[in-house]
């Protein structure tokens, strides 16, 4: 007999028919006559109840069915006599795949703290909470590919190992095969990277954008979706050292087209989650954040507020708030500033544009004022920045001047500059932090709880 997933059994199971199910035991209680086993296989948040007649099954076998053990059961689907479930499996056969020692299994009690569960990331997918989060994460990844595919975007795979620093923030993890205890040196005493694997200095990418632009300037519309790495020592609930980013890049889009796409994209994803992850969202709404589903619907129903950085600074300067970081034209906005604009002032998502060029990357299109660039950041309630993007500088001379001003080595970006020499085109793009999206969709408060195995400063366990 073939296995039926609990999800399919609960939605399409036929009464009085026999099924085989497999999964992990959540609870087991019983008396002299009858035993009740709640089984979960991760296909859905709900368990299936297995009813085992104590006169049919050996006591020795029933004893081994403890919380966390893995079993296979064959039995008949019947309407449930008890409360809490419509149907249950009346067991005919039970086989134990793996026992689970109740003395040492860490997931015995209900209601472990999220902090504790982080220390057992190898087992936390077996909880209702993490089952729900990782299923939602899956659905969102699928929806992202669906969205871009249906719009004719090409999924472009950009490299993970790179020789260039896209964001220019110097937060890269080095990739090398050199012997760190015996480094080859040049005549003037520097490390001789010509002896390294790639014959040059390389790192893990902070963004696929620069290569993404090469794709857009040939295929018109591309997107990337892959892991990115930042060695920033930020111990916050919103930063990871390894995170996933979605980066669409479009030829012939100006910054307004870029904003329209970003807003449409996020709203599509929120709607998709509400439609396809109903059970898991209801669970998270009930257990963690009673405002979650309201907040998701609110974002769908309201246009994002669009204003310039300069207008935002004026609002912040007039705000009667005790900000920790001072506000002045030219300052990099902190999460407290972003959240004031989103949560208190506009009470909806906000898109800020036209930031000072000093606080943004070299590739952004320069405005005529000589001071600002055509950047756009999308700011979200509880998250702050969820998307960063811009129209790109497509003028060869302006881009080249900026690269020189910032002393970016030409050997690192010559190929990028050439696209502005050979058939340049207006183009734009943005990056959506996948885990920040999942934070928003699930209502979780810490980014470590929306990725299976988080990498943060001083932590690369599992
Ligand atoms: O604003 P960022 O640095 O922009 C870029 O990397 C551009 N190259 C994107 C583009 O235009 N193609 O990062 C984009 C987004 C942020 O808005 C945030 O959501 C997320 O990536 N992000 C992080 N998420 C988790 N941990 C970190 N350390 C993150 N840094 C950025
Ligand atoms: Mg940014």
Q: Report strand order across the widest sheet.
A: 6-10-11-16-15-14-13-12
Q: How much strand?
A: 15-25%
Helix content: 25-40%
Q: What hetero molecules are in the model?
A: 4-amino-1,4-dioxobutan-2-aminium adenosine-5'-monophosphate, magnesium ion
| Count of DSSP H/I helices | 13
User: How does the major sheet shape up?
Assistant: 8 strands, mixed
SSE topology string: HEEEHEEHHEEEEHEEHHHEHHEEEHHEH
Taking all residues together, what is the mean pLDDT?
Answer: 96
Q: Give the CA-CA distance, first to last residue.
A: 35 Å
Low-confidence parts, pLDDT < 50 over ≥5 residues?
none
Q: Which structural category do the helix and sheet elements fall into?
A: alpha+beta
Radius of gyration from the alpha-carbon trace, in angstroms: 27 Å
């Amino acid at each position: 007999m073939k296995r039926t997933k609990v999800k399919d059994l609960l939605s399409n199971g036929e009464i009085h028919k026999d099924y085989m199910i497999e999964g992990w035991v959540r609870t087991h209680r019983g008396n002299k006559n009858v035993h009740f086993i709640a089984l979960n296989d991760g296909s859905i948040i709900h368990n299936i109840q297995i009813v085992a007649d104590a006169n049919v099954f050996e006591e020795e076998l029933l004893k081994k069915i403890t919380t966390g053990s893995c079993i296979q059961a064959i039995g008949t689907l019947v309407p449930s006599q008890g409360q809490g479930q419509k149907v249950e499996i009346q067991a005919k056969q039970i086989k134990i795949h793996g026992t689970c020692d109740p003395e040492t299994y860490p997931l015995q009690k209900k209601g472990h703290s999220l902090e504790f569960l982080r220390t057992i990331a190898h087992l936390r997918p077996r909880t209702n909470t993490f089952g729900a989060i990782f299923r939602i994460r899956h659905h969102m990844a699928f929806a992202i590919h669906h969205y871009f595919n249906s719009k004719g975007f090409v999924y472009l795979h950009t490299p993970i190992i790179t020789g260039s620093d896209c964001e220019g923030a110097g937060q890269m993890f080095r990739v090398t095969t050199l012997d760190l205890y015996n480094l080859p040196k040049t005549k003037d005493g520097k490390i001789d990277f010509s002896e390294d694997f790639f014959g040059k200095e390389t790192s893990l990418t902070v963004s696929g954008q620069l290569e993404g632009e090469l794709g857009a300037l040939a295929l018109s519309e591309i997107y990337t979706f892959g892991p990115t790495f930042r060695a920033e020592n930020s111990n916050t609930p919103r930063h990871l050292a390894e995170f996933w980013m979605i980066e669409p890049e479009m030829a012939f889009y100006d910054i307004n087209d870029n904003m329209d796409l970003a807003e449409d994209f996020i709203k599509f994803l929120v709607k998709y989650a509400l439609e396809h992850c109903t059970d898991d969202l209801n669970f998270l709404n009930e257990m963690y954040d009673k405002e979650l589903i309201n907040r998701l619907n609110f974002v769908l129903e309201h246009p994002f507020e669009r204003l310039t950085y300069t207008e935002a600074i004026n609002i912040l300067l007039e705000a009667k708030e005790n900000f920790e970081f001072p506000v002045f034209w030219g300052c990099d906005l902190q999460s407290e500033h972003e959240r004031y604009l989103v949560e208190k002032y506009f009470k909806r998502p906000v898109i800020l544009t036209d930031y000072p060029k000093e606080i943004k990357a070299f590739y952004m299109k320069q405005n005529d004022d000589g001071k600002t660039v055509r950047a756009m950041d999308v700011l979200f309630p509880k998250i702050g920045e969820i998307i960063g993007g811009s129209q790109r500088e497509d003028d060869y001379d302006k881009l080249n001047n900026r690269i020189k001003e910032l002393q970016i080595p030409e050997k690192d970006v010559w190929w990028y500059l050439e696209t502005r020499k050979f058939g340049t085109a207006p183009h734009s793009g943005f990056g959506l932090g996948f885990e920040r999206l999942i934070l928003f969709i699930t209502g979780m408060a810490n980014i470590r709880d929306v990725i299976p195995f988080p990498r943060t400063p001083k932590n690369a366990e599992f």
